[in-house]
Amino acid sequence: MKLSYKLVISAFFVTVIGSFIWSANHYYSKYQYEKKRADEAVQNAKLATAITNNVLQSLQIVNTVLEANQHAKQQIALESQRTQEDIKMAVADDDCASRPVPAAAADRLRKYADSLRNSTSNSASSYSDFGNTSTAHTRYSDLW
Fold it and tell me: What region, left, alpha or beta, does residue 131 occupy, with left being phi > 0 and alpha being psi -120 to 50 degrees?
């Protein structure tokens, strides 16, 4: 075989091997890029799942608090009804209960009730002496 044929054949093999090397490098780079994208997608999916779980847990907590508040409101309403019935029974035989309330006292009681409704800073303490008659005369002495 002539030297020129050997050179052409060896150049062909070098070109084929070079093409394989370039191809391997090219596709390996693509593989690395796609792997990075897939890993980021998995990371984003995990993050989205964690956020969704936190939101669901927050909603469950809010629902629990709302249910507790609703129950407390119902209990307060029931206690208020019981108190009204107790007061009606206590003053049923009292002749003073049938007399009209003086206008000044009624206005003062309305103002006090409005201040309780508008009060936001100390709403829990307004029920602290509920039903406790031993503190009623000292706590509300300005009403009598």
Answer: left
Give the pLDDT score at 130.
47
Tens of pLDDT along 132-144? 444 444 444 444 4
What are the tens digits of pLDDT across the range 91-121? 777 777 677 878 888 888 888 888 888 874 4
Is 50 exceeded by the pLDDT of residue 24? Answer: yes
Structure tokens at 76: 């307060």
DSSP the chain: --HHHHHHHHHHHHHHHHHHHHHHHHHHHHHHHHHHHHHHHHHHHHHHHHHHHHHHHHHHHHHHHHHHHHHHHHHHHHHHHHHHHHHHHHTTT-GGGGSPPPHHHHHHHHHHHHHHHH--SSTTGGGTTTT-TTTHHHHTGGG-
Nearest alpha carbon to residue 116 among 143, 83, 89, 144 = 143
